[in-house]
Amino acid sequence: MLQVWEGSQYRLPASGLQTSSGEKSSKVREKSRSPFSADGYSYCKNGNSVSIRQSVFEKLDENPLLTAKSLCGSLGLPYGKYRNYVARLRCEWKYYRRNERGSICSIHAWRGWAFIPPEVSVDRATAVSSGKWTQSRARNKWLLFKNSLGRLQWFQTNRVNIYCRKPVSPSGAIQLLAHGFAWTNLITDLNALKEMFNGIKLKGAHYVFPLGFRLPQPIVVDLFGPSNGIVVKLSDRSHPFGLELQVHYPDWVERNERTLEDIRGLLRNSFPERDYSKKLDYIT
Fold first, then answer.
1. pLDDT, mean over the chain
2. Distance from C-alpha of 135 to C-alpha of 62, rounded to nearest angstrom
3. C-alpha distances in angstroms, 157 versus 95, 98, 111, 203?
4. Which domain does 71 fall in, by range?
5. Which residue spans within the chain are E strands per DSSP?
6. What is the band of 26 on the pLDDT scale with cuts at 50, 70, 90?
7. Residue 63 falls within a domain, yes or no?
8. Are residues 148 and 216 in the same domain?
9. pTM of this prediction?
């Protein structure tokens, strides 16, 4: 007898098929059949009944640290018979797209910097008189630009510090610079704008990964902050159910790179026949 599986029941076709006794079925007849196997679980992934896969996923959602042995014990399954299957389900849950910790990340407090090309002359007095830029009271007389995307700090050395507001997108810094310089008609050369956009460098950012649980007390690991610019925070006040990774570009690295660029410029002027445009390898 031909049967069609629908959810957790077997259903006979409506018409046109012969039963085992040779009589045609005049109406749809449903045959109730238990969807469970001998151990009380169903092995259908999309069925309406409770399956081992669904039960394992629910247990791991509550406690991600459960092992295959503890899962079998809590579900009442023989460990010797189901250990390989439950271990495979545990690996499947770990790399399930909804549970991947690395793919779910929010970025805030993004900051960086860029330099205005030296061949471009931009009048700072014109920027202040336009009303878009504001003169600060600092000794170095930097200018401030603010809008809904973030803020810019423009120094007399033509360095521009960039602070993007969340949510941060890859084009947020470029759009913020365009609002500060292109839309205010301070820089109209497209090649100069492209060079400025390509020179954007990351100074620091905060990356938050949701964990789904909260630790009894917050943990801060700042051991590698001064040397490598990495600070790890768990269950702090700002993100109690997440892991916050604060990264920043150390100042000593920036100073070393600036010194290296000066040395390369000096060598380029002393030996013009050699090509120093290739980036140097820090390892070798």
1. 77
2. 54
3. 48, 47, 18, 18
4. 4-10+32-99
5. 4-6, 9-11, 30-31, 106-115, 134-135, 143-147, 150-154, 159-164, 201-210, 219-221, 230-234, 242-248
6. very low
7. yes
8. no
9. 0.57
